[in-house]
Amino acid sequence: MAKRARTIRREAERATDKLRQARMKLAALEPGGSPARPIELVSASVIEPHAASMPCAACGGTVRVDTHEARTFGAGDAPKRVRVVHVRCVACGTERDVYFSLDAALPS
Ligand SMILES: [Zn+2]
Fold first, then answer.
1. Contact 96, 32 (CB under 8 A)
2. Spacing, Cα 99 to ligand 1 middle (Å)
3. Which end of the chain is more exposed for a tag (fewer CB within 10 A), N or C?
4. How far is the CA of 26 from the centre of ligand 1 (A)?
């Protein structure tokens, strides 16, 4: 009996892991999920609030902004300046990077 309950629990945990991995893969394809597909914003000051307002990709929980840095992706003719915000879920601890671009910003 006890063994069966453990087996069921293990199966449930495996299913949860699979679901989480699938959600993370999906999030990577959505805007902000990769340097090639950053979320376009017009002001640097809204990057962190925007990142914090996005629910955890794995569980839908609240995330907190860990770090925020500017990085350059790609080389040669078309280097791309991207803001990378590292967020961590308060609920499940999942961490991920969210990518933003300020290309749409008006020149100042
Ligand atoms: Zn989470």
1. no
2. 18
3. C
4. 14
- Only one residue has tokens 């933003």, namely 100
Cβ atoms 85, 48 nearer than 8 A = yes
Eight-class DSSP state of 91: T
Phi, psi of 24 (to 5 degrees): -65, -40
If you measure from the C-alpha of residue 77 to the centroid of ligand 1, how many angstroms do you get, rounded to a whole number? 38
pTM of the full predicted structure?
Answer: 0.83
Ligand 1 centre to CA of 62 (Å) is: 7
Structure tokens at 15: 């299913």
- Give the mean pLDDT per block of 10 residues along the chain (108 residues): 87 94 95 95 95 96 97 84 97 96 68
Cα 30–Cα 66–Cα 59 angle in degrees, nearest 5:
50
The owner of tokens 């590292």 is 86
